[in-house]
Write a sequence for this structure.
């Protein structure tokens, strides 16, 4: 499948901009103050395509902190921001099985 | 083992220093991601869902104890304490940070391993039979020829920017354990009637979006012409392979579109012009490469020593021995497969501790040698039969003696959506759940040889098309669904599986697989008829009727 970066942008409901931190690949979310946070609750959440495009464009201006930015679906639940699909749930919480130890 | 020379060592050290500099420039912002990405990929560094992944090639699946121990060190020091062995005889580390990558690479380079050409549109790690050099079934050690190809293809300037990646596999035994028919080029080493060594050359095999079984374009190529003939193939591909459409760029599409005969004619024409040139392999060159493979100093031993006979009275040992131990070319020795498929664990994963145990055992009992097979298991190719009981006890204590090799829970699975940025669906938890359904290994043994292969997307890293049962993850409306195929096989009779029916949900897969297996148990002509043979005899209809009626 094409990675989300390569897909046509569709916005149905709340979305946020996500990327991987340059130094270690950790998942980060674009914040309203043009920074990045590892906490999805800090993400800037928008609901229309023009807003999402603007948020993404700003995020892509610099790739020194985070790379591979794209727009991802999120859910709003009682003031919390949650990942909007399984891919994003796995990106936030890690693999769905116990890692070898 | 192949002994690397000073050239290899110096080259790897230089390459690591170069990558360290590139990482430094990326971190400082001097290189953009667009500039850096192709550089990191050339060194085997991918960015996955939640971390960088380092892919390290294990040339022709052969590792020394020192190399495996170093991999354990890298897993523990720079990663999360484990590594994942892949269907390409590679190992992947899933959690290394960019800052740590140069150190991890330098550490690996010290023992001669690296990630160069494990990504990109170049000739990738040449793979072969994990029993090479040890099995009585082969006409020659295929690793000699894989090593010749490795030296030839490493940093080959003409073939660094091919239309797409290019994978070559070699077998030297009639029983194909290297899946040569589903590679871009498959080489079957054999002797002709005059006793000369040569290759049958197959081209255009491959899995992925458009799977094909390779076509034979030459029945016998004298071995000394290997490089010139491969070069002719690469040139024809490089010239005519499509670059306008990534999905049509593999050699299999070219061979399919112009036909194997036309392709072969073009190769032969090209080859005529270069066959006796610089790539001709003289006896001296072949002898030199051959001499760099050091073979164990086997003792003169008899088969079935008293220690083994005594140990076989223990039913647990006897079960493992029947399942995981194979005949060696040398009397008194055996080939041991080390299952990396404990029931319920991620297929192909080994912890740093387990890697160290295997390295120690290889040192103690196995002439320092370890192999990696495309089925994602390890192998100790040179174990004295008298040492098998002690080896088994040590493997058992480390969780490495599950006697399920080639059984229904010896599942091949790609990383899938739990790691991979390209995935549609998960593969590992599907494998875990199916394996648990057959946790009773007595029952699994009753089912017999049955390969389940799972891929998390159409790229088919889990070789689902050639699984006896193939499982492919697809996405429908944001949900994971799975297509099931039956009757595929990756061996000398390679064929692609047939789609059973509509895709089913994640939750339905394990039950459906149980139904498929139950149906086979009812329909087989007897225990001697393997699953694939029953599917070949009856087709998929009886399975389809039964399975979809139940779901
Ligand atoms: S088959 Fe797809 S999901 Fe699995 S590892 Fe390959 S690219 Fe990733």
């Amino acid at each position: 499948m094409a990675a989300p970066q390569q897909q046509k942008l569709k916005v149905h409901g709340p979305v946020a901009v996500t990327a991987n931190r340059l130094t270690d690949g950790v998942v980060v979310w674009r914040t309203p103050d043009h920074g990045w946070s590892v906490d999805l609750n800090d993400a800037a959440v928008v609901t229309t395509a023009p807003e999402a495009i603007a948020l993404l464009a700003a995020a892509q201006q610099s790739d020194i902190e985070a790379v591979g930015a794209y727009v991802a679906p999120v859910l709003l639940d009682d003031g919390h921001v949650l990942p909007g699909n399984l891919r994003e749930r796995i990106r936030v919480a890690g693999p769905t099985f116990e890692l070898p130890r | 083992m192949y002994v690397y020379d000073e050239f290899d060592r110096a080259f790897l050290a230089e390459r690591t220093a170069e990558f360290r500099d590139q990482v430094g420039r990326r971190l400082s912002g001097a290189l953009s991601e667009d500039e850096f990405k192709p550089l990191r990929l050339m060194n085997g560094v991918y960015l996955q869902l939640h971390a960088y992944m380092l892919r390290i090639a294990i040339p022709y699946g052969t590792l020394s104890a020192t190399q495996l121990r170093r991999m354990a060190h890298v897993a523990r020091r720079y990663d999360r304490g484990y590594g994942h062995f892949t269907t390409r005889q590679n190992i992947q580390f899933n959690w290394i940070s960019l800052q740590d990558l140069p150190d991890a690479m330098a550490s690996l380079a010290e023992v001669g391993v690296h990630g160069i050409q494990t990504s990109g549109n170049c000739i990738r790690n040449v793979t072969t039979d994990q029993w090479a050099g040890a099995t009585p079934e082969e006409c020659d050690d295929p690793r000699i020829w894989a090593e010749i190809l490795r030296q030839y293809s490493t940093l080959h300037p003409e073939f660094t920017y091919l239309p797409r990646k290019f994978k070559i596999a070699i077998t030297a035994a009639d029983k194909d354990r290297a899946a040569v028919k589903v590679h871009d080029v498959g080489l079957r080493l054999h002797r002709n009637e005059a006793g000369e060594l040569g290759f049958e050359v197959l081209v255009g095999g491959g899995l992925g979006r458009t799977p094909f079984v390779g076509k034979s374009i030459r029945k016998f190529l004298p071995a000394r012409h290997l490089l010139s003939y491969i070069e002719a193939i690469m040139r024809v591909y490089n010239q005519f392979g499509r670059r306008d459409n990534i999905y049509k760029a593999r050699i299999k599409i070219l061979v399919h579109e112009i036909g194997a005969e036309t392709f072969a004619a073009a190769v032969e024409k090209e080859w005529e012009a270069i066959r006796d040139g610089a790539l001709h392999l003289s006896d001296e060159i072949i002898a030199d490469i051959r001499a760099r493979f050091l073979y164990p100093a086997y003792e003169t031993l008899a088969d079935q020593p008293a220690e083994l006979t005594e140990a076989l009275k223990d039913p647990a040992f006897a079960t493992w021995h029947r399942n995981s131990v194979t005949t060696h070319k040398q009397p008194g020795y055996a080939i041991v497969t080390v299952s990396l498929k404990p029931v319920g664990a991620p297929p192909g994963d080994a912890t740093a501790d387990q890697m160290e145990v295997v390295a120690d055992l290889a040192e103690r009992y196995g002439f320092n040698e370890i192999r990696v097979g495309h089925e994602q298991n390890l192998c100790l190719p040179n174990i004295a039969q008298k040492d098998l009981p002690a080896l088994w006890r040590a493997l058992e204590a480390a969780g490495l003696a599950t006697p399920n090799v080639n059984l229904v829970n010896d599942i091949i699975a790609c990383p899938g959506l739990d790691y991979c940025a390209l995935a549609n669906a998960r593969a590992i938890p599907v494998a875990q759940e199916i394996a648990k359904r057959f946790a009773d290994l007595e029952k699994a043994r009753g089912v017999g040889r049955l390969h389940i292969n799972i891929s998390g997307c159409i790229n088919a890293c889990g070789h689902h098309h050639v699984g006896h049962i193939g499982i492919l993850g697809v996405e429908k409306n944001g949900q994971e669904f799975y297509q099931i195929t039956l009757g595929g096989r990756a061996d000398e009779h390679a064929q692609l599986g047939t789609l059973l029916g509509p895709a089913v949900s994640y939750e339905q897969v394990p039950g459906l697989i149980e139904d498929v297996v139950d149906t086979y148990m009812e329909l087989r002509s007897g225990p001697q008829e393997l699953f694939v043979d029953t599917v070949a005899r009856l087709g998929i209809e009886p399975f389809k009727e039964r399975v979809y009626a139940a779901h």
